[in-house]
């Protein structure tokens, strides 16, 4: 018989051996908090084209524990409404809530540099598992968590109550923070944002830390860690790669419709210096989002199966279309912004500088803008004005 306490201890030991888990207090929390409790009523397992529902009540207890402690991200909601207990057979859908893999959860909590007296705001309660880990150390009164989806918030709150935590679980838009319990020593976001909202900076006391994933693509996003200063700004760095679901208020509407019609008239056409296939790699994709914020990267195919790649910026009504010709690519650009010119400029400068990784990127947040840069490379500097 598989024992839940044994599985928790095994997971903690594994994360310690991998260098992810370092703090004794967090190991104690991992060994005490039952992740399986926060996966109820069930999860969806990825089967390629479909999601297979697996419920706590309908699954062998040993198998349920194996799923809970396999260090995987587990989808708990599809399309903003469907849970595993309401799906009798494999289904299609878009994940809208999940239990993030414990490796990422632990890594982010470690990055907060918590001490026992800290007051934390969590953006994106999700299942409530990471909330529980922090409550175990800080106490329930020092953790405030905000979840935009009322059903998700209710399930998380019930799971927290079931293991003895009466937390401050707030249903609302986490991009607004939660002013009534500010200021906070730490803010952690378990969703991706296009930019760090200045409301978070305003609600963090000087010396406090904000940790969150920045970017709007499904890949090529970075974990930003900034410290708030006395002057009302926040400065820090991208400390690593990170991937989370987009905050619902900032979710990107996929480019739809006849792409050939939208790219029929181009202002320029030339051979691409850099292949668009580079955007399939993490750091080039991150740099592309810095160079052309608001643009989406779209993959499609002709009727004969040959690949097509596009960059679209709906707000600026600009596009770049890439057409393969053997080993080279032709880029057609239209609209007021030559999107690929800006991306190529960034990628060539990055390559010339030795292709530094994402943790070389610095970030400064002010009320008016986000400034990104890489030290020593003047051409890799972008300032995004906040509307």
From TrEMBL:
InterPro entries with a match to the protein in the record:
Methyltr_grasp, PCMT, SAM-dependent_MTases_sf
- Molecular function terms, GO-annotated: protein-L-isoaspartate (D-aspartate) O-methyltransferase activity
Where found, per UniProt? Cytoplasm
Q: What is its EC number?
A: 2.1.1.77
Q: Give an example GO cellular component term for this record.
A: cytoplasm
Please verify whether the record's keywords include Metal-binding: no
Q: Which UniProt keywords apply?
A: Cytoplasm, Methyltransferase, S-adenosyl-L-methionine, Transferase
CDD domains from the xrefs?
A: AdoMet_MTases (cd02440)
Q: Superkingdom of the source? A: Bacteria
- A Pfam family cross-referenced in the UniProt record is PCMT
Top EC group = transferase
Instruction: List, in alphabetical order, the GO biological process terms annotated in this UniProt record.
Output: methylation
Q: Kindly indicate whether the keyword Methyltransferase belongs to this entry.
A: yes
Task: Please tell me where this protein is predominantly located.
Answer: cytoplasm
Regarding protein family, the annotation reads: Belongs to the methyltransferase superfamily. L-isoaspartyl/D-aspartyl protein methyltransferase family.
Its name, as the record gives it, is: Protein-L-isoaspartate O-methyltransferase
Species in which this protein is naturally found: Streptomyces smaragdinus
């Amino acid at each position: 018989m598989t024992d839940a306490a044994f599985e928790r201890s095994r997971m903690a030991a594994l994360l310690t051996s991998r260098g992810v888990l370092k703090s004794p207090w967090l190991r104690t929390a991992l060994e005490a908090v039952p992740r399986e409790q926060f996966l109820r009523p069930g999860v969806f397992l990825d089967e390629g084209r479909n999601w297979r529902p697996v419920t706590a009540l309908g699954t062998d207890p040993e198998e349920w524990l194996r799923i809970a402690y396999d260090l995987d991200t587990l989808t708990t909601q599809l399309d903003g409404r469907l849970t595993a207990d309401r799906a009798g057979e494999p289904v299609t859908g878009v994940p809208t809530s999940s239990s993030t893999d414990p490796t990422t959860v632990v890594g982010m909590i470690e990055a907060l540099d918590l001490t026992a007296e800290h007051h934390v705001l969590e953006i994106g309660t999700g299942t409530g598992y990471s909330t529980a880990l922090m409550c175990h150390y800080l106490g329930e009164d020092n953790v405030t968590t905000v979840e935009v989806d009322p059903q998700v918030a209710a399930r998380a709150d019930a799971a927290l109550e079931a293991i003895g935590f009466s937390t401050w679980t707030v249903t609302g838009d986490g991009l607004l923070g939660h002013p009534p319990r500010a200021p906070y020593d730490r803010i952690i976001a378990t969703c991706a944002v296009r930019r760090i909202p200045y409301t978070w900076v305003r609600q963090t006391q000087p010396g406090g830390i904000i940790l969150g994933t920045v970017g709007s693509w499904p890949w090529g996003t970075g974990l930003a860690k900034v410290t708030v200063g006395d002057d009302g700004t926040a400065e820090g760095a991208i400390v690593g790669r990170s991937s989370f679901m987009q905050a619902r208020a900032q979710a990107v509407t996929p480019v739809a419709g006849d792409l050939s019609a939208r790219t029929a008239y181009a202002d320029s056409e030339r051979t691409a210096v850099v292949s668009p296939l580079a955007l399939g790699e993490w750091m080039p994709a991150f740099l592309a989002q810095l160079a052309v914020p608001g643009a989406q990267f779209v993959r499609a195919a002709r009727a004969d199966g040959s690949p097509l790649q596009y960059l679209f910026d709906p707000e600026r009504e600009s596009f770049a279309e890439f057409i393969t010709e053997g080993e080279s690519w032709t880029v057609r650009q239209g609209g007021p912004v030559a999107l690929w010119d800006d991306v190529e400029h960034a990628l060539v400068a990055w390559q010339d500088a030795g292709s530094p990784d994402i943790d070389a990127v610095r970030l400064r947040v002010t009320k008016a803008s986000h400034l990104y840069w890489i030290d020593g490379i003047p051409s890799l500097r972008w300032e995004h004005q906040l509307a």
